[in-house]
Amino acid sequence: MVETGFMEHVNGMLELIGNTPIAKLNKVAKDVEANVFVKLEYLNPSGSYKDRMALSMVEAAEKGLTWNGRKLKPGGVVCDASAGNTAPALAFVCAVKGYKVILCSYKTMLHGGEESARLKITDAFGAEVYQCPLPSEDILKQCSNERERTYSYILAGKLHMYELEKNNPEVVWVDQIYNPYNTVGQMEMGREIYKQLDGKIDAWGCSIGSGGTFLGVALALKDEGVIPKTFGIVPAYSTIVDISADIAKRSEIGRPKIREKLVKLMGLKKWETEESIVETMYKMDYPDDFFQVSSEDARHMANRLCREEGIYCGMSSGANVFAALKVAERMKADQNVVTVIVDRRDRYLDEYPEDIYVV
User: Fold this and answer.
1) pLDDT tens, 183-193?
2) Which of 94-103, 270-279, 281-290 comes out lowest in average pLDDT?
């Protein structure tokens, strides 16, 4: 065992967010010369990296640092729509802080018509959870492909949260996709990585959904004077990039015009004027490369990580390591590639063995 020291006690579970270990992969990375490291974010209290973001956004809301200046007050309500780890993370943070939380879930959190494990975890923390309203038939008819239909479901949930906040003064919509405190919350992960590897980070990348983790770590490393090669990872039918190959330079990808089309069509006025985290990321010229990873490859690597490295992780973690190994193939023996283990496998057991990679 490695002697890491220990705390005698903590004053609450929120103090256990962050300061996660970083581990070098051995067996799955045996065929590459570069070192591949994974930040073990599945060890956060609710089981995922989203704990950092949830705490940051809620604490910002307590100070009135929200898109409309609304302040989260004692006895207040936090809301958002979520397809995955944000739901249990927000429910956990709000449970500890004493806020009510309302979360609407996308269809991806339902499995065979039943609640997914992620929803059951969210329920356990006492959140009010229900399925997001569906887009109207008229909206769906105007969607020209699967990507647009997927985005219309996301927007329907977000629009519902927008209306919920507008009509209830005690409610604060944290809106992770556009909330800069998502990124701020993940910057501490970057500072931890910098310290853990003595500043030697040659490549950094992870799956990009809201973009907060990728951008937060990249910006924190930049603040420390470290400019690594960066890579983003997306599943097929991503709503943020249009990739025709498994790997592409940032300059080679297309950006679907879904947001411009559907935001106006569905009337989500907040998103018409604000800049999302992903848009900020593009303006800052991140990432250098994009990888498109299939569910099959993500699942295979997640299984290998469980069975060969003892890392009990889900599909996004598998996709992250799959891409990190591709990057490591092009790097030298003394270089370090870093990615993240985002969550635990237990929240996907109801989907096993046909788990699907989504972000």
Assistant:
1) 999 999 999 99
2) 270-279
Last residue of a domain, one of 173, 204, 238: 173
**Token pair 């997914």 in the structure block, residue:** 116
What residue type is assigned to position 134 of the chain? L
Same domain, 27 and 90: no
Judge if 252 and 328 occupy the same domain: yes
- Give the domain range for residue 108: 50-173
Place of tokens 């269809």: 107
Q: Tell me, yes or no, whether 290 and 167 share the same domain.
A: no
* Predicted structure pTM score: 0.94
Residue 195 shares a structural domain with residue 93: no
169 plus 239 within the same structural domain: no
Tokens 């990057």 — which residue? 327
Extract the tokens encoding 248: 């592409």
Predicted confidence at residue 219, as pLDDT, reads 99
Q: Look up the CATH number of the domain holding residue 244.
A: 3.40.50.1100
